[in-house]
C-alpha cells in the first residue's frame, strides 16, 4: 500500500465573502487531491475557515453583530463556494468547532510541558489585517509618516500581558530542517525569503491576547485567548484526529508522512517558521512540504474592496462555467507565480483549448460514430504505424508526463502536456481523414475511429483532476466504466468488453459551448 496523502488549503478568514484568490487556492489543491486519489492513494483533504482573532472581532463589531454570527454567515458562503466549484474536501473545518478548541489546547499544553512557554509582557507592533506581530526593523513608512507592515497594512503599538513561545530556541533547528529537507518550502523564491528571515535571528513570539475574548481559551490562564495563528495552524492537526484519535493521526499525520500545505505567498512565514517550531516543541511529526502559491491579480492589478475589483468566484463560474474557470486558473498560472485574470483571458483560453481543441475532437469523433455506425463501436482491423505512434505519444503523456507534473504540484505543466496529446489526436484525425475512408476503406475507417475513441477516453481520464464534471460527463457518454477512471487503470480490455456488451453510443452532447464576450465583461 502506498502512503496516505494529507493535503490542506489555508483556512480563510470569514470576515467577508470569498474572493477569486480563495477559489484559486481551493481549485489548485482540489486538483492535486483528485489526482492523488486517482493514483489509488488514501487522501485526506481539508479546507475551512479561520474564525477567531481581532480581525473577525472588529469586522463583526463594525456590523453590530457577534463574531460568531459573522462566522456562521460567512463560513456558509465559503462552503457554498467550495461545493459549487467541485472542491472534493474530506473535511470543511471551522475553528470555532469544539474538537478544534480541544486540539489547540492540547498543543498548547504539549508546548508548555516542553518548557517553551512563559508569561511576559508584549510591547510592539501588531497588524490586525495580517493578524501578525512585526519587529520594528521590518516596518516601512507609509503616507504621512504612518508605520506599515512589510505587507503594507497599518500596524498599531500594542502593550499587553502575554504568553510567549520560545521561538528563539528554534533558529538552528529550523535551519537544520530546511537544509535536511530542501523541498520543505517551495517554490525556491519563498524558501530563500524564509532562510533570510530565520538567519536574521528569531524573537520569541507573543502567543496570547488579553484585550478581547474571541478565541480559544488558554488552558489555566484566565483572561487569555490564544493568538489566532496558534489556533489557526492547529486546524491541520484537528482534522487528523489530534490529540485523542491516535489511529487517525498515525494515518494522516505520521512521521515521514506525505503532508502538504498549499497556501498563498503572504503566509509562508507562519507555515514555514512558526508551525514547524510549534510541532517540534510538541514533539509531533512535521509536514513534508509547504507550497506558497502566487497571487491572482485582476487584469494585473491587486484586488481590493476600495478599488471595487474583487471578483466573486461564483459569478465567474456561473458566467463561464465551473470547469472553464478551473481550467483557466490552472492552465494560465504557473503554480507558484502570480497570475492575472480577466473575462477576455478566460474566454480565450476556454474557447481555444476546451471548445475548439478537445471539445471539437471529441464531438467530431463521437458524432461521426453515432451517425455513420449508428453508435456501434468501431472494430480494429490491424494497425498502421500512425496508430501505434499516436498511442505511444498519448501513453507517454498520460502515464508519465502528466502524473509527474501533478505529483510535483505543477498543474499547468500537466495541462500543457495534455494539450500536446490533444493536438496529436487532432493531427491524426486530419491526416487519417476517416470521412474520406468511409467509401473507399471502411475497415481502415473503423480502426482510425477506434484508435481515436480510446485516445479520447485516455485524455478525458487524465484531465479529470482539472475539469471533473465535464470529463466525467464525457466518460459517461462513452461508457467508460468507473473503475477504469484512475491514473494507470484506463488501459486494458474495457474497449473490447464494451464492444462485446453491444454498447451503443448516443449522439454526443456538446461539452464546451463556445463562450462569447459581452459588453458587461469589459
Ligand atoms: O491568510 N490570490 O486567510 P485569508 C491568491 N486565515 N491567493 C490569495 C489571494 C489572491 N489574491 N488573496 C488571498 C489567511 N489568498 C489565514 C490563513 S492558515 C492556518 C490561516 C490566499 O482569508 C492567502 O494567501 O486572508 C491564503 O492562503 C488564503 O487565500 C486565505 O487567505
TrEMBL record:
Which residues belong to any copy of the Methionyl/Leucyl tRNA synthetase domain?
A: 6-366
Q: Which reaction does it catalyse?
A: tRNA(Met) + L-methionine + ATP = L-methionyl-tRNA(Met) + AMP + diphosphate
The answer to whether the entry has keyword Iron is no
- Which parts of the sequence form the motif 'HIGH' region? 12-22
Q: Which residues form the Methionyl-tRNA synthetase anticodon-binding domain?
A: 417-516
Mind listing the GO biological process terms from this record? methionyl-tRNA aminoacylation
What CDD domains has UniProt attached to this entry?
A: Anticodon_Ia_Met, MetRS_core
This enzyme's EC code(s):
6.1.1.10
Localization in the cell: Cytoplasm
Q: Which UniProt keywords apply?
A: Aminoacyl-tRNA synthetase, ATP-binding, Cytoplasm, Ligase, Nucleotide-binding, Protein biosynthesis
- Which intervals of this chain are the motif 'KMSKS' region? 302-306
- Which is one Pfam family of this protein? tRNA-synt_1g
> What GO MF annotations does this protein's record show?
ATP binding; methionine-tRNA ligase activity
Alphabetical list of NCBIfam families matching this protein: metG, PRK12267.1
- Indicate the family of this protein: Belongs to the class-I aminoacyl-tRNA synthetase family. MetG type 2B subfamily.
The job of this chain, per UniProt, is described as: Is required not only for elongation of protein synthesis but also for the initiation of all mRNA translation through initiator tRNA(fMet) aminoacylation.
Question: What is its quaternary makeup?
Answer: Monomer.
Protein name, entry field: Methionine--tRNA ligase
- Give the gene symbol: metG
Amino acid at each position: 500500500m502506498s502512503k496516505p496523502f494529507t493535503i490542506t488549503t489555508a483556512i480563510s478568514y470569514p470576515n467577508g465573502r470569498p474572493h477569486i484568490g480563495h477559489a484559486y487556492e481551493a481549485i489548485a489543491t482540489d486538483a492535486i487531491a483528485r489526482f492523488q486519489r486517482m493514483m489509488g492513494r488514501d487522501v485526506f483533504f481539508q479546507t475551512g475557515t479561520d474564525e477567531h482573532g481581532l480581525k473577525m472581532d472588529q469586522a463583526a463589531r463594525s456590523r453590530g453583530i457577534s463574531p460568531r454570527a459573522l462566522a456562521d454567515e460567512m463560513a456558509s458562503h465559503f462552503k457554498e463556494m467550495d461545493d459549487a466549484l467541485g472542491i472534493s474536501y474530506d473535511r470543511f473545518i471551522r475553528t470555532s468547532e469544539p474538537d478544534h478548541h480541544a486540539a489547540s489546547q492540547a498543543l498548547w499544553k504539549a508546548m508548555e510541558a516542553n518548557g517553551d512557554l512563559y508569561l511576559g509582557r508584549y510591547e510592539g507592533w501588531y497588524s490586525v489585517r495580517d493578524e501578525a506581530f512585526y519587529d520594528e526593523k521590518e516596518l516601512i513608512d507609509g503616507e504621512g509618516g504612518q508605520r506599515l507592515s512589510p505587507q503594507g497594512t497599518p500596524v498599531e503599538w500594542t502593550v499587553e500581558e502575554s504568553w510567549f513561545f520560545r521561538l528563539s530556541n528554534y533558529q538552528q533547528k529550523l535551519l537544520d530542517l530546511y537544509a535536511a529537507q530542501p523541498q520543505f518550502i517551495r517554490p525556491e523564491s519563498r524558501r530563500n525569503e524564509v532562510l533570510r528571515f530565520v538567519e536574521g535571528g528569531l524573537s520569541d513570539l507573543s502567543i496570547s491576547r488579553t484585550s478581547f475574548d474571541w478565541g480559544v481559551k488558554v488552558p489555566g490562564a484566565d483572561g487569555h485567548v490564544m493568538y489566532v495563528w496558534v489556533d489557526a495552524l492547529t486546524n491541520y492537526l484537528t482534522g487528523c484526529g489530534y490529540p485523542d484519535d491516535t489511529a487517525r493521526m498515525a494515518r494522516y499525520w505520521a512521521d515521514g508522512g506525505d503532508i502538504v500545505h498549499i497556501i498563498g505567498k503572504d503566509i509562508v512565514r507562519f507555515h514555514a517558521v512558526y508551525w514547524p517550531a510549534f510541532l517540534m516543541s510538541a514533539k509531533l511529526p512535521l509536514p513534508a512540504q509547504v507550497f506558497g502559491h502566487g497571487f491572482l491579480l485582476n487584469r494585473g492589478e491587486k484586488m481590493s474592496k476600495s478599488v471595487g475589483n474583487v471578483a466573486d468566484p461564483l459569478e465567474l463560474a456561473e458566467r463561464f462555467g465551473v470547469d472553464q474557470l478551473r481550467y483557466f486558473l490552472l492552465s494560465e498560472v504557473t503554480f507558484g507565480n502570480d497570475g492575472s485574470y480577466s473575462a477576455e483571458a478566460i474566454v480565450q483560453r476556454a474557447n481555444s483549448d476546451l471548445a475548439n481543441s478537445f471539445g471539437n475532437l471529441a464531438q467530431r469523433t463521437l458524432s461521426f460514430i453515432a451517425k455513420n455506425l449508428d453508435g456501434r463501436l468501431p472494430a480494429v482491423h490491424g494497425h498502421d504505424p500512425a496508430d501505434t505512434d499516436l498511442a505511444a505519444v498519448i501513453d507517454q503523456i498520460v502515464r508519465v508526463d502528466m502524473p509527474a507534473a501533478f505529483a510535483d504540484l505543477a498543474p499547468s505543466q500537466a495541462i500543457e502536456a495534455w494539450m500536446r496529446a490533444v493536438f496529436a489526436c487532432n493531427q491524426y484525425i486530419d491526416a487519417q481523414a476517416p470521412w474520406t475512408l468511409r467509401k473507399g476503406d471502411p475497415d481502415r475507417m473503423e480502426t482510425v475511429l477506434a484508435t481515436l475513441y480510446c485516445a479520447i477516453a485516455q485524455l478525458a481520464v487524465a484531465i479529470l483532476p482539472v475539469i471533473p464534471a465535464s470529463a466525467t460527463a464525457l466518460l459517461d457518454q462513452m461508457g467508460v466504466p468507473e473503475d477504469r477512471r484512475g491514473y494507470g487503470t484506463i488501459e486494458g480490455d474495457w474497449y473490447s468488453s464494451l464492444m462485446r456488451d453491444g454498447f451503443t453510443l448516443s449522439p454526443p452532447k456538446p461539452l464546451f459551448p463556445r463562450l462569447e464576450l459581452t459588453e458587461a465583461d469589459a
